[in-house]
Amino acid sequence: MDNCIFCKIIEQEIPSYKIYEDEAVYAFLDISQVTPGHTLIVPKKHVTDIFSYDEELASQVFARVPKIARALEAAFPDMQGLNIVNNNKELAYQSVFHSHVHLIPRFDQEDDFSIHFSNNFERYTTEELTEIAAKIAKQVK
Ligand code: AMP
Ligand code: ZN
């Protein structure tokens, strides 16, 4: 797609630090290197975000994630963990609108990546959670 920075990387029109490529995906270092080895996996097909994946594309992209995860683990013997992040739409911190999966190796608690999960369990009744689950379940197609 014109004017998409990740399409240009896939087409080798602009440089990248390539890690892996096959018919479906391209993996390369994220230039921000949140932690050492921070890698992006992108589908070669331009899709904006997760809402545009069909099952075939999803199985192609997400099937490659463990392969790159294991490569990071082997490459960084001091790696203690791995966060896999996929941001969708601007509110959720997506800044490049060609879908991508971040693999962020973790080394220690002060390694420059953080994520905060609140626990709001006490704000909901059993009935409310049942209703929320049913509302979503009805839309699964
Ligand atoms: P997100 O905010 O989830 O959309 O992530 C986009 C990521 O793309 C950011 O972490 C950027 O550092 C990264 N990025 C942007 N341009 C490039 C580039 N030319 N090469 C490698 N990574 C890039
Ligand atoms: Zn693109």
How does this structure look, described?
- Keywords: Methyltransferase, Transferase.
- Residues 5-115 form the HIT domain.
- InterPro entries: HINT, Histidine_triad_CS, Histidine_triad_HIT, HIT-like, HIT-like_sf.
- It is an enzyme of class 2 (transferase).
- The structure is a single chain.
- The model has no long low-confidence stretch (mean pLDDT 97).
- The chain has a five-stranded antiparallel beta sheet with strand order 1-2-3-5-4, with helices on one face.
- It has helices spanning 5-10, 55-75, 126-137; strands at 18-21, 25-29, 39-43, 81-85, 101-106.
- By secondary structure, the protein is an alpha+beta fold.
- The radius of gyration is 17 Å and the shape is globular.
- The protein is built from three helices and five strands.
- Helix content is 28%, strand content 18%.
- Adenosine monophosphate (AMP) is lined by residues 5, 16, 30-32, 87, 93-96.
Q: What attributes does this structure have?
A:
141 residues, five-stranded antiparallel beta sheet, HIT family, subunit A, 5 strands, alpha+beta, binds zinc ion, binds adenosine monophosphate, 3 helices
Tally of structural domains: 1
Shape: globular
Distance between the termini: 28 Å
Largest sheet features: 5 strands, antiparallel
Overall pLDDT metric? 97
Radius of gyration (CA) equals 17 Å
Strand order of the largest sheet: 1-2-3-5-4
Strand fraction: 15-25%
Low-pLDDT windows of residues: none
What fraction, in percent, of the residue positions are helical?
25-40%
- Indicate the CATH architecture: 2-Layer Sandwich
- Oligomeric state of this protein: single chain
Which molecules are bound in this entry? adenosine monophosphate, zinc ion
Count of runs of 4 or more consecutive helical residues: 3
Number of strands: 5
Enzyme class: transferase
Protein name: HIT family protein
EC number: 2.1.1.-
Keywords: Methyltransferase, Transferase
